[in-house]
Amino acid sequence: MAGAKVFKKCAACHTATEEKNKIGPHLVGIIDRPVASIADFKYSPAMTAHATEVPKWDEAALTKYLHDPKGVVKGTKMTFVGLKKDEDIADVIAYLKDPAAGE
């Protein structure tokens, strides 16, 4: 699955296959999950504020964020510059929906 390959860019900080936080929060069940909602992860104030504007990580919110994380959430702790190709973003979102299919 192409999304699994693209997700390798994210894997240093996130996991999509187990509910274990790394530098970033785990992404298990991220699709339609409330923004900044993992109880044992310390989100930046910017991400917590973003949750009041964008209540959940639906596909549209993830697409926008993955294009330009720092532009969408100014002050985010996430250092990743984003994915520039729409196809890569669609592939990662497909992978996040069903990570087991990508293994």
Kindly list the characteristics that best describe this protein.
39% helix, mainly alpha, 5 helices, single chain
List the helices and strands and how they pair.
Layout: H1 2-7, H2 45-53, H3 59-67, H4 69-72, H5 86-97
Helix pairs in contact: 3-5
Structure description:
With 103 residues, the protein is mostly helical. It is built from five helices and no strands.
Task: Label the overall shape.
Answer: globular
Q: Indicate the multimeric state.
A: single chain
Number of strands: 0
Query: Strand-residue fraction?
Result: under 5%
First CA to last CA: what distance?
A: 8 Å
Unreliable sequence segments = none
In a nutshell, what does this entry contain?
The chain has 103 residues and is mostly helical. The chain has helices at 2-7, 45-53, 59-67, 69-72, 86-97.
